[in-house]
Amino acid sequence: MSWRTEGLSITTLTIIDLCRESVESYSKAGKEVRVARPKRCPACGCKNIIFWGKRARWAIDDTHAWRIYAQRVKCKGCSKTHTILPDFLFCRRSHLAVIIFLALTLVFKDRHGIKAAAFRLNISRSTTFRWVKNFKANSDLLYQRLSSLYRTAYPHAPPPAPTTDLCAAVLDLSKGLFTARHNRAPRGEDVSRWLSQFTCGYLLALPTKGGHCAADRLFASLFLGS
Ligand SMILES: [Zn+2]
After folding, report:
1. pLDDT tens-digit profile of 84-138?
2. In the prediction, which pLDDT does 182 show?
3. Measured in angstroms, how far is the CA atom of residue 40 from the centroid of ligand 1?
4. How buried is 135 (Cβ within 10 angstroms: 0-12 exposed, 13-18 middle, 19+ buried)?
5. Same structural domain, 107 and 81
6. How far apart are CA 160 and CA 171, in angstroms?
7. Which chain residues have CB less than 5 Å from ligand 1, an ion?
8. Alpha helical stretches, state H, the chain
9. What is the model's pTM?
10. In what order do the strands lie in the sheet with 14-17?
11. Ligand 1 center to residue 12 CA distance, Å?
12. Are 200 and 145 in contact (CB under 8 A)?
């Protein structure tokens, strides 16, 4: 039985590639794009993983839609296929991670309304609303995990308390942790890529209904590493 997906009906997981490339160069490489082979299967932990074709998908920013090819891999241990995404994307989202991060920052830090944030980033209101809703649903788990990391990075400074807004505290913690690790002020793109790596791409993937469905537990097990 797999170590992360016991009792869950999981066929495909996302693996985030620690990609240094821009979306432009990733797109330009087309089907020739190269990614590192994952060391372990995220479902069962098996090390015997083979490349298994590529699948076209979109990567959208505020002005352009880039066609990219995401590498798929197959685990010889559990026979499941997984998709490797560059870290400028989150799983199940076509917009670039940095656009999503900027939208969340506009709403939760700069206190813009959803309509104003969507207009500023040239995104539909309904898309922005879904991002905000899912981020809110994940914010408790994100805050717990990020504040734990923050205490490790800054043992003598308490993490920002979520006194008024948990979502704003999560964004502050993300920036603070990036600064602690890289010793420089982060750009939005830096933090969004780091968040994609940190959440295994599942930043916004937690369903908002039910609370205890398979995807919830999968997210928690990937994210918390349990
Ligand atoms: Zn496997």
Report:
1. 999 999 988 999 999 999 999 999 999 999 999 999 999 999 999 999 999 998 8
2. 79
3. 8
4. buried
5. no
6. 10
7. 41, 43-44, 46, 75, 77-78
8. 23-29, 97-108, 114-121, 125-153, 166-182, 188-198, 214-224
9. 0.85
10. 14-17, 81-86, 65-75, 49-60
11. 10
12. no
Q: Which of 86, 105, 129 corresponds to the end of one domain?
A: 86
Say if residue 60 is in the same domain as residue 101.
no
Q: Which of 128, 179, 178, 180 is nearest to 154 (CA)?
A: 180
Hey, how many other C-beta atoms are within 10 angstroms of the C-beta on 43? Answer: 25
Cα 7 to middle of ligand 1, angstroms:
15
> What is the distance in A from the centroid of ligand 1 to the CA of 113?
43
Q: Which of 27, 54, 86 is the last residue of a domain?
A: 86
Residue 141: give the domain boundaries.
95-226
CA of 139 to the centre of ligand 1 (A): 29
Cα 165 to averaged position of ligand 1 atoms, centre (Å): 39
Domain shared by 74 and 119, yes or no: no
Distance CA 127, CA 81 (A): 28
Q: With contact defined as beta carbons under 8 Å apart, do 70 and 85 qualify?
A: yes
How many distinct structural domains can be found in the chain?
2
Q: How many residues does the chain have?
A: 226
Which is nearest to 133 in space by CA: 63, 58, 208? 208
Write out residues in the chain with pLDDT < 50, as ranges. 1-3, 5, 7, 9, 207-215, 226
Q: Using the mean position of ligand 1's atoms as its centre, give its distance from the Cα of residue 49 in Å.
A: 8
